Amino acid sequence: MDRVPALEEPLKKLLGGPTAKVMADHLDLHTVGDLLHHYPRRYEERGQLTKLAELPLDEDVTVVAQVADARVHTFNAGRGQRLEITITDGSGRLQLVFFGRGIHKPHKELLPGSRAMFAGKVSMFNRRMQLAHPTYAKLGTDAAEDGDAVDIDSWAGALIPIYPACKGLESWKIAKAVDAVLPSAQEAVDPLPEALREGRGFVSLPEALLKVHRPHSKADIEDARERLKWDEAFVLQVALARRRHADGQLPAVARRPAPGGLLDAFDAKLPFTLTEGQEKVSKEIFDDLATEHPMHRLLQGEVGSGKTMVALRAMLAVVDSGGQAAMLAPTEVLAQQHHRSITEMMGDLAQGGMLGGAELGTKVVLLTGSMGTAARRQALLDLVTGEAGLVIGTHALIEDKVRFHDLGLVVVDEQHRFGVEQRDALRGKGKQPPHLLVMTATPIPRTVAMTVFGDLETSVLDQLPAGRSPIASHVVPAQDKPHFLARAWERVREEVDKGHQAYVVCPRIGDLAEDGEEAKSAKGRKKAEEAETADKRPPLAVIEIAEQLSKGPLQGLRTEILHGRMQPDDKDDVMRRFGAGEVDVLVATTVIEVGVNVPNATAMVIMDADRFGVSQLHQLRGRVGRGSAPGLCLLVTDMPEASPARARLNAVASTLDGFELSRIDLEQRREGDVLGQAQSGVRSSLRMLTVIDDEEVIAAAREEAAAVVAEDPDLDRLPGLRTALDALLDKDREQYLDKG
Question: Cα angle vertex 147, ends 146, 149, to 5°?
Fold first, then answer.
């Protein structure tokens, strides 16, 4: 039987079952290698104490501090006892509280003047921060809680690593576990090619692991971090470079628009000229379509920059060449909206083969899950015969029954809403791999584009079409200044009086079915409660807010609701009437977030705006100011002025630059979210690299990776790199990276 490599050894063999179980369940650490790559979050220096003045509320923290005083208080007529210990670090003071029988050990051990590491969740009591029943390990003696001694001499001259921890497994316990597996670091296989490592002056991987866990100086930490960041960036970029290389080997049908064909006829009908940006991006796309391997291009652009127009021209070019083009939209509302706007833009060119249709025209069909049987049967027939050159649909396009005559281009709108399997299923419907155009209205910083979309060529539309109006954005602090909210509703009435329309957006639907679902699990309820604001108010809901507005500040206005649980025909009817100006105010969930285009809508009020992400707020705001009249977006919140949520809303209100906002959004999120942790269901591979701060590392790693893959696509001469790649690309992650 083969010996298990040291780094693949299960942790329970070395650490025992209970510790290994906590590590697996809470930190997703299963093997020796996993634990060696669980890096310290920061380091404490002897004599340098954590700033107690900057502790975050409701977070698990580890602090190193000195006991200032300790007092036992009695309550309940002497029947109960409470130990209050004050610790200090020179910058501030923090209270520790122990109750009942739990007071005796800390009272005996935590004497004034003693120093220790303390771990617990920061809470607030009587307007003072505290740690209730923290775990602790004394520094400088053999006495420590649960028998875990931390001898200060063992840290002599070194830095104390503080690890990302969890309940039941404090930082110092993780440090002890790391000590047990650290000798195995010597067997770590180095993924970097030797020439690259020596050329850049990096330490070896075993040395980097040793230095990151047990540094003797800040220079050690720097050496280790520099090396480990490079590993993460390089291995990821090699995976993406190999994907690009493999895509380049696939055959595809070159699709060139016919002179005097459908595209030329469409362009001749346009009532406006394309922006410089649209012309440039269209050329990049047409150049890709003319090649005999599949295009894999990401088209990103500001809200309202005209991406749909660029995508439609690409689709018409493919129809010109005898092929078909499919656009995949994430929601029925958006699919219907695209179908409506595309058929309107094309006019008689969208009525190919029909009475009154243009000679050069084609059929544009809609395919969604809720269509009637007859309409669905006709749509499927039009696709398989090639009658329909263009199809716009939801995930219904992916079903097995759907067959194409000759699928030449797949356009995926708002790609982050689709799983990889869905995109691949649609691409698999071509006789040969179709060209792929991925669109997103969420601006993506260059570094994220190089990591998340590193296998796609990128086109950016950052110029708004002529005639688009500016949008004024303001934060409305409803709790602090209720008259501001009253004024917000007055502004909505003023816009309607001018002949315009408005959106009101809420985080929740609020119907009984939804509330019943939410109440199904006690765990779900507890999480929801923890996530709520201090007053425990649930998020505002469409149904309740619509009723309040109709009876109150917006009485007399034509108000309708729109949310994802409505029947598709009802949703379409509401959107059609709103688009036709028959509805003054639309109270909706984020179902209107992307693609909805009503130029007459000038105002938007977003309730509980603090419950939405930065990019989502920017997307929502982009629904107004789409015509010649200026737009207004009001961000309503109950959060206090000094809160992080208010800072986030102020940032959104202060700029219309989506790229700037995407940086802010990214800085406030974990790297795992960026790499699609929720989408791929696997742990983020990034532990040391930060995609915003390490742009230079990522760019350099991308170049090196491209060179390595060009020379040795199968990495036959680099077994260490192959091993690292296999570890990164478990089945789920490989699918996730397979954007193309």
Answer: 120
Three-state secondary structure string covering 95-140: EEEEEHHHHHHHHHHCCCCCEEEEEEEEEEECCEEEEECCEEEEEC
Pair 315, 484: CB distance under 8 Å: no
Convert the pLDDT of each residue in 692-718 to its tens digit.
678 888 889 999 999 999 999 999 898
Average pLDDT, the chain: 82
Taking the CA atoms of residue 55, residue 56, residue 57 and residue 59 in that order, the dihedral angle to the nearest 10 degrees is -110
Q: What angle do CA 377, 265, 595 make, to 5 degrees?
A: 60
Predicted confidence (pLDDT) at residue 414 exceeds the cutoff of 80? no
Whole-angstrom CA distances from 714 to 239, 241, 245, 409, 423 are 11, 11, 10, 29, 26
Of 43, 261, 37, nearest in space to 160 by CA: 43
CA–CA–CA angle 35, 36, 42 (5° rounding): 95
- H-helix or E-strand spanning residue 626: none
| Joined tokens for residue 25 | 């369940």
Strand pairing of 159-162 and 457-461? unpaired
Amino acid at 46: R
Please give the Cα distance from 423 to 426 (Å, whole number): 5
> Are 327 and 315 a contacting pair, CB within 8 Å?
yes
Q: In what order do the strands lie in the sheet with 363-367?
A: 363-367, 388-393, 324-328, 407-413, 435-440, 296-301, 457-461
In eight-state DSSP terms, residue 639 is S
* Residue pair 444/300 in contact by the 8 Å Cβ criterion: yes
Dihedral angle over CA of 607, 613, 618, 619, nearest 10 = -90
Tell me the residue ranges of DSSP E strands in 285-419: 296-301, 324-328, 363-367, 388-393, 407-413
464: which 2 tokens? 């708004």
- Phi first, then psi: give them for residue 518, nearest 5 degrees: -60, -30
pLDDT digits (tens, 9 = 90+) for 46-85: 544 456 777 777 776 778 888 999 998 888 777 788 899 9
Q: What pLDDT does residue 739 have? A: 39
Say what angle helices 205-213 and 218-249 make with each other, to 10 degrees.
130
Residue bearing tokens 């470079």: 241
CB-count burial class (<10 Å; 0-12, 13-18, 19+) for 717? exposed
d(CA 288, CA 294): 8
Tell me the CA distances in angstroms from 203 to 198, 226, 408, one per residue in order: 8, 9, 49
Q: Classify strands 631-637 and 601-606 as parallel, antiparallel or unpaired.
A: parallel
Per-residue tokens: 102: 């739990």
- How many other C-beta atoms are found inside a 10 Å radius of the C-beta of residue 584? 21
Rounded to 5 degrees, φ, ψ at 326 are -120, 135
Q: Which of 43-47, 305-309, 369-373, 548-552 has the highest mean pLDDT?
A: 548-552
Spatial separation of the C-alpha atoms in residues 336 and 296, rounded to whole Å: 26
pLDDT in tens, 492-551: 999 999 999 999 999 998 854 444 333 333 333 334 334 433 345 788 889 999 999 999
pLDDT more than 90, % of the chain: 34
Question: What tokens does 615 get?
Answer: 């990019």
Q: What digits encode the pLDDT tens for the residues 269-283?
A: 888 888 888 999 999
Q: Which two tokens stand for residue 598?
A: 């009503």
* Contact criterion met (CB below 8 Å) for 677 and 650: no
CA distances from 291 to 107, 252, 256 (A): 76, 8, 9
Instruction: Single out the residue of 238, 111, 184 nearest to residue 685, CA to CA.
Output: 238
The answer on pLDDT for 169 being more than 80 is: yes
| Closest residue by Cα to residue 214 from 1, 39, 412, 468 | 39
Q: H/E/C letters for each residue in 201-241?
A: CCCCHHHHHHHHHCCCCHHHHHHHHHHHHHHHHHHHHHHHH
